[in-house]
Design brief:
Radius of gyration: 34 Å
Strand content: 5-15%
Strand order of the largest sheet: 1-2-4-3
Largest sheet: 4 strands, mixed
Shape: elongated
Distance between the termini: 7 Å
Number of domains: 3
Structural class: alpha+beta
Length: 288
């Protein structure tokens, strides 16, 4: 599910901002982008995200800024600035350009302004970073919950179509069975003209055919999966992966029905059911 959220927290001398972006994925993938002095917090931050989010490709960007109002300020690296100026002047002289390096050239070098030494210990810094992460994740999950509720009517519509298709297949099955039985009887009669309709061989073949073409079990399981899917829609726990599994199982049952029936009317209903399952499969990727 595509979602974006921010979280901010304020420490004694620095402020933390966390941006979390999530897109669809069948499993959980976490990519983090932290400043070098915060890299030690990468493992616990990943653990925190993994406890809140169960699937999706999650990208996390962390930034930290000193807070001048709390005594923190930027510091100029004058030694590096002098070295850069001397290097630029030497380069201009070597290439035959007149004058000296402009201040704007040095001012554009971001590395000349550095963050102050942070007096806070790692435990305090992680506490502030954790607060910002919680805030971002709560907003992210809230956005996912809202989008999940918006998808409920889509699933309800698809499930309704599936139930109607299942009922229509069950109603059409006896006629399809009768047509297959008649075809079998005619084929056997052509192969053995003297065989009567009550002969044991003919009856045995018809029983075998009836067993092979019986769709009751597949239709019963399909209805069961539809009922389970409806239960999941009202479950407060993450259920996206279970939905994926149920859709896969429903698709398997529908394919089996189509293969066993080999009937035009039922085949058309199977195609309709598969269209609805494809819509559900795509939307289930948006469910946590």
């Amino acid at each position: 599910m595509t979602a974006f959220a921010r979280g901010q927290a304020f420490g004694e001398s620095e402020d933390f901002l966390i941006e979390v972006h999530s897109v669809n994925s069948r499993r959980l993938e976490i990519a983090t982008n932290l400043p070098g002095d915060l890299i030690q917090f990468d493992p616990p931050l990943r653990k925190l995200i993994g406890e809140a989010v169960t699937r999706g490709r999650v990208t996390v960007h962390v930034s930290v800024r000193p807070n001048p109002a709390k005594g923190a300020s930027f510091r100029a690296d004058t030694a590096l600035a002098r070295q850069l100026k001397d290097a630029y002047d030497e380069l201009r002289s070597t290439l035959g350009y007149p004058g000296q390096v402009e201040f704007s050239v040095l001012a554009a070098r971001g590395e000349l302004l550095v963050y102050p030494e942070v007096p806070e210990d790692p435990g305090k810094r992680w506490g502030v970073l954790q607060t910002a992460a919680y805030a971002a994740l709560q907003r992210l999950l809230s956005m996912k919950e809202t989008e999940g509720e918006n998808l409920r009517p889509v699933f309800e519509t698809c499930l309704g179509h599936l139930e109607r298709a299942t009922a229509a297949i069950r109603e059409a099955a006896p006629a399809a069975m009768a047509r297959h039985t008649e075809k079998l009887r005619l084929k056997i009669k052509d192969a053995a003209p003297g065989l009567g309709d009550t002969e044991e061989r003919l009856l045995r073949e018809i029983v075998i055919l009836a067993d092979k073409l019986d769709l009751a079990e597949e239709l019963d399981r399909l209805n069961s999966h539809i009922s389970q899917f409806r239960v999941l829609m009202n479950d407060a726990k993450p259920c996206g992966r279970t939905m994926d599994f149920l859709i896969q199982e429903m698709n398997r049952e529908v394919n089996t029905v189509g293969a066993k029936a080999a009937d035009l009317t039922i085949s058309q209903l199977v195609v309709e059911a598969k269209v609805q399952l494809e819509v559900m499969r795509e939307q289930a990727q948006n469910i946590e």
